[in-house]
Amino acid sequence: MEVDQTAGFEINPRRGLVVWVYSLKQLKNLKRYGFVYYVSRKMKYVYLYLDEERYEENLAKIQKLHFVRSVEPSYRPDVEMNFADKIGTKAAYQEVDEGFEVEELSTRIRLAENV
Q: Is 5 a domain residue?
């Protein structure tokens, strides 16, 4: 049996969502909105992954549920994760000049037995 290599697997963009709940009895209701990745029974929150294309409408529906305390969206897709331009360059170490000078001091290491 041969597998068709041309048929590709599409990756759907997703976004994380932390849903704080009063009770975990209604966990099955949250499963219909997205993929339940983690459930904290002690702290009573659920981490969901929602599809990016229907994120806003599902977020509004989840916030209206009676057993939901609060909802926190994940900001990871909004953060620039490409640090290649910054690593190893002077731009990574530059800060806003506030009039302070940084001077490097030589530090002498002493062992505890010599103190």
A: no
Contacts 24+ apart (CB under 8 A), 105-111: none
Classify residue 33: in a domain, yes or no.
yes
User: Is 98 domain-assigned?
Assistant: no
pTM of the model: 0.63
Pairwise CA distance, residues 35 & 58, whole Å: 12
pLDDT digit string (tens) for 44-53?
999 999 999 9
**Would 103 be classed as within a structural domain?**
no
Rg (C-alpha) for the chain, rounded Å, is 24
Name the nearest CA neighbour of 49 among 19, 24, 10. Answer: 19
Q: In what order do the strands lie in the sheet with 45-51?
A: 35-40, 45-51, 14-21, 68-73
Residues in the chain, pLDDT under 50: none
